[in-house]
């Protein structure tokens, strides 16, 4: 493991603080270590010494995906991190050839797409990244400390530090810094703190989806070789609401998730409810894979009420020296798997703004972050708003876009070019507009329903595309 600190690419200041030690905070601190002499990461929880659950990341026991673009950014922040993840048991697998995917009423064609992603648990991913951050000489970690307020200049136009105390109370402590980054998640108190300082309340958009899911780890049964490494059974929106995923993770284990939209989730955290829900998926393959498998732990339940976006980019006034990243600014329906990768894009953007000079950097970042969120927010909320029961403002032309999206998903079921385009957009390697190129539009308009028809089981890897992932 490298313990060297990269030479600062710019001299933005002496000290920066990041509060919130999840992936958004870890990546942001890594970026800032290149721009400040010293970086302090503040976290309310005690950090465990290993890939273990902690209170502040209640969803960590569930399936996660760091998309290809997010992994590229992570590897730029921490060179060699891919190799360290592999050494910890992760695998980098082709996202089409190794995945048996059922969606839009059919099994997807499998072939070598050239797009790979890490197959690893969230607990292991965060542990490997945290170890790497801790090895940087100019990064100091203060866990078991809670942020309780912002310190500002006399005129309140600049944030100059952070007020801390032990969780539950105790002596307050002030950390001075030229930059404070809020990576504290959905429960961020920055809106309240800014309002108390005389700033307007940040505008929020919420789209209620009432998502729930349950996850459990199983031992991979001896001789279990179904021909895929991961399985994804997605509903045909909005007619169906249930989904199921099997993800291979380190130590030859299977992480299994079942759940859905609008309250469609296992009734309780017991074996019978979990298996009964799995039996009710659109296809039987997930249930068949786990019905006799050995569970390696309890069933974990997670509920997500609403997508939430705070529009800091719209605020007419905002203090210099403060940046907000990750779920603290925007948290998506986790089913779409965009959270960590969008946080990586924000961390990267913050670094780019600092390279342009420390003066005005956080104001530039605030606008840039707002632009970055447009695509992921549209992708996530378009699926949720397809349900008539979901309340929220539909954008102009939503009906036409929803029709196009459904047709595109049918096309993806059998057309390799469309599937390549889709996974590149899904993994943030191309913008959503790639799905609307003239060539794609023509294909969508001429979708062959017979070719997209449901097939009896996962499609085998295409004979012409059997290169190793």
TrEMBL record:
Residues 15-360 form the FAD-binding domain. It comes from the Bacteria. Residues 450-469 are annotated as: Disordered. GO terms for molecular function: FAD binding. SUPFAM superfamilies: FAD/NAD(P)-binding domain. This is FAD-binding domain-containing protein. It comes from Cystobacter ferrugineus.
């Amino acid at each position: 493991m490298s313990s060297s600190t990269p030479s600062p690419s710019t001299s933005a200041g002496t000290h920066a603080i990041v509060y919130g030690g999840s992936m958004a905070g870890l990546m942001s601190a890594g970026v800032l270590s290149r721009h400040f002499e010293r970086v302090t990461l503040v976290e309310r929880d005690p950090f465990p010494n290993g890939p273990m659950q902690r209170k502040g990341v209640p969803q960590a026991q569930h399936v996660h995906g760091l998309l290809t673009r997010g992994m590229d950014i992570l590897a730029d922040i921490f060179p060699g991190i891919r190799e360290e993840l592999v050494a910890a048991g992760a695998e980098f697998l082709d996202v089409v050839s190794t995945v048996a995917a059922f969606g839009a009423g059919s099994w997807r064609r499998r072939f070598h797409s050239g797009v790979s992603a890490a197959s690893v648990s969230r607990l292991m991913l965060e542990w490997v990244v945290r170890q790497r951050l801790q090895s940087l000489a100019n990064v100091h970690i203060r866990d078991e400390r809670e942020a309780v307020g912002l310190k500002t200049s006399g005129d309140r136009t600049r944030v100059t530090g952070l007020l801390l105390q032990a969780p539950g109370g105790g002596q307050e402590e002030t950390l001075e810094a030229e930059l404070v980054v809020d990576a504290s998640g959905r429960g961020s108190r920055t809106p309240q703190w800014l309002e108390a300082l005389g700033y307007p309340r940040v505008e929020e958009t919420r789209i209620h989806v009432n998502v729930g899911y349950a996850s459990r780890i199983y031992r991979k049964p001896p001789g279990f070789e179904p021909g895929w490494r991961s399985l994804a059974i997605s509903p045909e929106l909005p007619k169906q609401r249930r989904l199921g995923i099997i993800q291979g993770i380190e130590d030859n284990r299977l992480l299994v998730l079942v759940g859905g939209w609008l309250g469609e989730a296992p009734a309780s955290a017991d074996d019978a409810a979990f298996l009964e829900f799995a039996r009710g998926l659109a296809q039987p393959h997930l249930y068949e894979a786990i019905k006799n498998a050995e569970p390696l732990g309890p069933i974990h339940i997670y509920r997500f009420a609403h997508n939430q976006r705070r529009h800091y980019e719209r605020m007419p006034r905002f203090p210099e020296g403060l940046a907000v990243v990750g779920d603290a600014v925007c948290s998506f329906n986790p089913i779409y798997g965009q959270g960590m990768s969008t946080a990586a894009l924000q961390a990267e953007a913050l670094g780019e703004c600092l390279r342009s000079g420390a003066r005005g950097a956080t104001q530039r970042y605030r606008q840039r972050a707002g632009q970055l969120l447009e695509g992921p927010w549209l992708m996530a909320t378009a699926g949720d708003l397809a349900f008539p029961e979901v309340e929220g403002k539909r954008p102009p032309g939503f009906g036409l876009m929803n029709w196009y999206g459904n047709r595109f998903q049918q096309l993806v079921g059998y057309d390799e070019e469309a599937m390549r385009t889709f996974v590149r957009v899904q993994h943030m390697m191309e913008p959503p507009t790639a799905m609307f190129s003239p060539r794609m539009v023509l294909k969508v308009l001429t979708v062959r329903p017979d070719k997209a028809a449901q097939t009896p089981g996962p499609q085998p890897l295409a004979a012409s595309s059997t290169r190793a992932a």
